[in-house]
Design brief:
Strands 3-2-1-4-5-7-6 form a seven-stranded mixed sheet, with helices on both faces. It is built from ten helices and seven strands. The chain starts with a helix and ends with a strand. Strand 1, helix 4 and strand 2 form a beta-alpha-beta unit. With 269 residues, it is of the alpha/beta class. Pfam families: Methyltransf_12. It comes from Cysteiniphilum litorale. InterPro entries: Methyltransf_12, SAM-dependent_MTases_sf.
């Protein structure tokens, strides 16, 4: 798997929307959950989105909530460039000022460079799994979230890509109960919680793996256990052999890919 999400998501910019059925389904469910609680808000001024991709979903959120400013962040340069183009080409959204930012929410300097304001809503759909430390990321979010503001996000949970655990290195996914423990540490209150299991079917193993590449999720953040060869470089031979056997023994049989998704609507009291 590729090491950098910045590289893999940029590479998938032309194929993403042909294969993002899981992300779109979760995004729609997440927005509906959020809007049930946001109907009472008459004046949403500032929204921050983490992992905005090419900005298509960002425009839809802005149309629903009509904020004054919308700061949208993604690590992939190519996707941010496309988001800026889409916003310029789309019909004007009344009063909303978009600001698309290329940045890495894992880095402290990213949060320091954000506009000096508190956000009424922070939104993220299936992006926070790329955090190196969720507890630290949540602390950054807490610092810029307004009192009584809402943090709305979805994230793949433990059990995602279960079919591939013995084949290739996959990132560690947080369990649902671990997520709830993090909320308690920050004294966040959850307004809505939902868990969804989604399983995709593929004609064979090759198309299963191509799906990962086409949606940009073929990145590995590392777990500190990678073996190194004599030159100090990480060795990929064990994984490549396992992957070769996996594809060689395919026999063109139907295979699956599982997603376990947590959807959360949080408020900061």
């Amino acid at each position: 798997m590729l090491k950098s999400p910045r590289i893999s998501f940029s590479a998938a910019k032309d194929s993403y929307h042909q294969h993002d059925q899981v992300q779109r389904k979760v995004d729609e469910n997440l927005k509906n959950m959020a809007c049930q609680h946001l109907e009472q808000y008459q004046n949403i001024q500032h929204i921050l989105e983490l992992g905005c991709g090419d900005g298509v979903a960002s425009i839809d959120i802005a149309k629903r909530l009509m904020p004054l400013t919308y700061d949208a962040v993604d690590i992939a340069d190519a996707l941010i460039d496309r988001a800026r183009e889409i916003t310029v080409d789309s019909s004007p959204i009344s009063r909303c000022n978009f600001n698309f930012i290329q940045g890495d929410f894992n880095q402290s300097f990213f949060w320091q460079a954000l506009p000096q304001k508190k956000y009424d809503v922070i939104y993220s759909n299936m992006a926070l799994q790329w955090s190196h430390c969720l507890q630290r990321l949540f602390k950054y979010i807490d610092q810029v979230l307004a009192v009584n503001g809402m943090f709305v996000f979805s994230i793949p949970l433990d059990g995602t890509f279960e079919e591939l655990k013995k084949i290739v290195r996959i990132n560690k996914f947080t369990a649902h109960h671990e997520m709830q423990s993090l909320f308690k540490l920050l004294n966040w209150q959850y307004l809505s919680i939902d868990k969804q299991s989604i399983q995709l079917e593929f004609f064979n193993r090759l198309t299963q793996l191509k799906h990962l590449k086409s949606t940009g999720v073929n990145s590995f953040l590392g777990d500190g256990k990678e073996e190194k060869n004599g030159k100090g470089r990480k060795s990929k031979k064990p994984e490549m052999k396992s992957l070769w056997r996996y594809l060689h023994n395919d026999n063109d049989q139907m295979t699956t890919l599982s997603y376990e998704i947590g959807l959360y609507v949080i408020t900061k009291g």
